[in-house]
Amino acid sequence: MTHNWQFDVPTAGSKRLPPDARYMEALSSQGYGFEVAIADLVDNSIDAGAKDVVIHFLRDGDQLVSLLVVDDGTGMSDDQLDVAMTVGGLRGYNTKALGMFGTGLKSASLSHASAVTVVSTTKRTRTAGRRWLMERAVSGFECDIVDPDYAQTLIDRYDNARPILWQGTVVRWDGVKDFPKHGGGGQTDRYLHRTINKLGLHLGLHLHRFLERGNFNITIAVEDVRTGTIYMNFGVEPLNPFAYPVSGNHEYPREFKAPVPSIGDVTLDAHIWTPKSNLDEYKAVGSVLDRQGFYFYRHNRLVQAGGWNNFRQPEQHLSLARVAIDLPAHPSDAFRLTVKKSGVDASPEFASALEHATDADGRTFLNYLAAADMTYRDARKRTGTVRKAVVPPGKGFDPTVRETIEDELPLLQHEDPIAVRWQNLENELFFDIDREDRTIILNQRYRAAILGGRRGGLNDAPLLKSLMYILLHQVFEKEYSGSREKDNLQLWQSILVAAARTELDRVADDD
After folding, report:
1. CA–CA distance, 74 with 95 (Å, rounded to integer)
2. Does residue 265 contact residue 257 with C-beta atoms inside 8 Å?
3. Which H or E element spans position 34?
4. Is the Cβ–Cβ distance between 379 and 275 less than 8 Å?
5. For 175-226, what is the HEC assignment?
6. Between vectors from CA 56 to CA 55 and to CA 62, what angle results, nearest 5°?
7. SS3 state at 485
8. Cα–Cα distance for residue pair 115/267, rounded to 1 Å
9. Other C-beta atoms lying within 10 Å of the C-beta of residue 201
10. What whole-number distance in Å separates Cα of residue 207 and Cα of residue 498?
């Protein structure tokens, strides 16, 4: 049976289908990471011309109660605030604005909080406020009008100090899902230490060009709402992923031009990092495989840190290669920014253009990749030893441990990583090995004693797990164990069981 294909779909009219109120629930389920969500709010502050932004964690004793992002930007009037709080609200983004879709404030906030309140004031208008309460938003797009007196009180809390002087905006999150439910036993302090460290690194990296200017500051602070005590108050430092002390190859950096048919030449600022660097600018960006590749900027804001965008697969020998790309000012099909501004989808024509990219001297982009590869290999040779390739660590190992192993040892390519997990085993066993699943199994019986009362998790006991990897990784690189290796396994088993039982006895004595 054959039919004539119609290239245009014929229609018979149209009808209006407004979104169901549950769209708000879908909007808040886009997988925003905590640091990505906060960065989205800071983007709005930058668009508003802010010079100072304060990220304020508020606690009541051991309990975290709210999170606020406060800025000294131009602020919003009543009407402007309505637009800002409307999903997909149409507002006039200028050509260099970081905002794009009109959803970031709402989706980023409601991904992590049950309520988001925005209070704002300008030099010429009275203070106004709006609140999205998730349970009301999903039932009918009902946005609350904040009591004007409270709105002014919230602004006054940050008036005549940092950051608000004459104008500014406060974004308040309540019912933050990630906050510890019970703050006792030091849980809140540990959460704050871990979260603020990650947040500072993320903001320092993705907004480093703004922070490097000297006229823009981000401060992270923790305050007890009852006593007014400030527990932490420090400025976010820029984390420039290209701030190496000396280039790994004296012939770089170099600029290459990639001819993308739909938009013209795209400039590739290609760098080779110093080998074996311990600087945060190198190591804090991601794993060995994640941190190499393209660093896309949009209006000076880093929107993707590493990755080859389907041009090639990452590999350890290219770990020193980083390429800065400033995206075109106008949107195009060649590069599509994700809604969360945490990645770029590059079209196949960009990958094709890289094959033909050259610099002013006629060198190709492929020559650059070869130079980065050789720089890494030469640095390894200069150490005087060649380390044997290993199966990489995987699930259950702390990311910092995985990163260090990947930095220090060559990895066997196309091999499934070694995982580690806790599981109930017989008392005379400290560990077991599952060759088929590539897993080191630790005896759950000894977990509490080894953790010393600390709360367990997927990546807990990093020291023990690292030692177990060092002992056992070679077992997974062979199809079977010989008599010498079996004897070693039994020896390690006996010693570790004795040590673990001693730990249990000490815990019992302490109780």
Report:
1. 18
2. yes
3. helix 34-47
4. yes
5. EECCCCCCCCCCHHHHHHHHHHHHHHHHHHHHCHHHHCCCCCEEEEEEEECC
6. 140
7. helix
8. 43
9. 17
10. 51
d(CA 131, CA 126): 17
The pLDDT of residue 87 is above 80? no
Statement: residue 155 has pLDDT above 80 = yes
* pLDDT mean over 206-223: 95
Q: Which two tokens stand for residue 469?
A: 């990897």
Per the listing, tokens 């990163």 go with 403
Maximum Cα–Cα distance across the chain: 85
Q: Are the C-beta atoms of residues 179 and 151 closer than 8 Å to each other? A: no
Q: What three-state secondary structure class fits 509?
A: helix
Between 362 and 162, name the one with better pLDDT.
Answer: 362
Q: What is the DSSP string of 72-97?
A: -S----HHHHHHHTSTT------TT-
- Quick one: tokens of 449? 């004693």
pTM of the predicted structure, to 2 decimals: 0.78
φ and ψ at residue 145, rounded to 5 degrees = -95, 120
What token pair was written down for 101?
Answer: 């879709």
Say if residue 460 is exposed, middle or buried (CB neighbours under 10 Å; 0-12, 13-18, 19+). middle
Backbone dihedral angles phi then psi of residue 469, each to the nearest 5 degrees: -65, -45
pLDDT band at 268 (very low <50, low <70, confident <90, very high): very high
